[in-house]
Amino acid sequence: MSSHLTLVALANTVIPAELNTAFIEHAKVLGISITKESAERVHPNYFTARWTCAQALTPEARVAMRNIAGEHDVDLAFLSSGFKPDEVRVLAMDMDSTLINIECIDEIADFTGKKAAVSEITEATMRGEIKDFKESLRRRVALLAGVSADVLDSVYKERLRPNPGAAQLMAGANARGLYTMLVSGGFTFFTEKLQQELGLKQTQANTLEIIDGKLTGKVIGDIVDGAAKNTYLEQACALLNCHKRNAITMGDGSNDLPMMHGSGISIAYRAKPIVKEKADAAFDRVGLDAALLLIA
């Protein structure tokens, strides 16, 4: 079986010719063959270009090529020779800082003056420095004890916004008939509202305990961590009689990696370095809906 790769460049403006030169020169250093296909604009908002690479790239080479693209203000995706766009059936996404612009738990904490303490734990967890997501979430939620449940609605109305291209991505995915999932280590209060707003087929998240109109600082039931995200995705694929390789996955933090590993395309959206290094695509400039170009 061929082990070639397709490199897909995605940008908000015309992709400079200098990028092709830079790619070819670096490919020579690597001792590999790379050939540019014709550039085309296939979406109203983005420009794309594709290259065929004659062999697989080492992780170090992928980082180098991605860095070269970044120097030209371009995002880059690596599509394996075995990837079949027309066989994609599922789109599974993280919520906080992926589908939406905030970490909800940090914003809830901000209403109590504890954002710095909670954010510190959140950031360390997403970078992979705190390995136990469940313990991390319990520590952060405990800091919210006594907060009025009304704060959740305030966060949703005043601070939560879908990230660029979110609505277009969901509309395009639903029109294509994909099974759209939101699998979040965040909270059901927000995922359920987003499900209604964006037309998601399934959402999974954590439930905050509320008694007498106040958060107790506890989570009800099992916590959705990285392993659970992957399990929910695999269960959805089983129900659809397909494989994880028939899924697109998108995330930004280390707890998204189990879900992203082994999927047809994994996309790191404005993600932590540990996630970008392992993902097939890294979106730092284009919007979420650019994912549709990878399955066109």
Describe this structure in words.
This protein is of the alpha/beta class. It folds into two domains: 1-82, 2-Layer Sandwich (Alpha-Beta Plaits), CATH 3.30.70; 86-296, 3-Layer(aba) Sandwich (Rossmann fold), CATH 3.40.50.1000. Helices cover 39% and strands 22% of the residues. It contains twelve helices and eleven strands. It has helices at residues 17-30, 59-71, 95-99, 104-110, 115-126, 133-142, 150-158, 166-176, 188-198, 226-239, 257-260, 273-278, and strands at residues 5-11, 34-36, 47-53, 75-80, 90-93, 179-187, 202-211, 214-220, 247-251, 265-269, 281-283. Strands 2-3-1-4-11-10-9-5-6-7-8 form an eleven-stranded mixed β-sheet, sandwiched between helices. Strand 7 (202-211) and strand 8 (214-220) form a beta hairpin. Helix 1 packs antiparallel against helix 2 and helix 4 runs antiparallel to helix 5 (115-126). The longest helix is centred in the N-terminal third of the chain and has 14 residues, at 17-30. The radius of gyration is 20 Å and the shape is elongated. The two termini are 23 Å apart. The model has no long low-confidence stretch (mean pLDDT 94).
